[in-house]
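Write out this protein's structure.
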Amino acid sequence: MHRLIAYYQVPLGLSQDQQAGAACVWCGGPAGPDAVGLEYPGYHGCPDCYLARISWLITWYAWQQHVLDCTPCRQQRTCYVGRGRRIRHELTIVPAGKEPLFCSVCHRPVDADEPAMPVFCEGDSGTHLGYGHTHCLAQRAVTR
């Protein structure tokens, strides 16, 4: 998880203090003695920002793994465990500074009452962890 955060979660356009390791790469606050060293030379994250991103990744992967293993989730049926994993993940979005759920297929926001699933999105810049409406993903699978 640390490498995923260090390589893929560091924003572009850092200030001089952030590049020098004197400030958190995410919030810009002072790095402090308990700052987490990232893979890039001198980059640091404050413990709160780092923990928020770890939580976001862990809950996304837990939800995604459940969906892969759960027949009701894959068949678009009611699954309370899958719903709970989604809610747990959604609670990590704002603290991690991430965008709300957005469907990678139809490019619309995913409302709280709409069934959705986590998906890997392949793009020019690499793999992106995203989301999709279950009906959009099912329709996309049928057309392929």
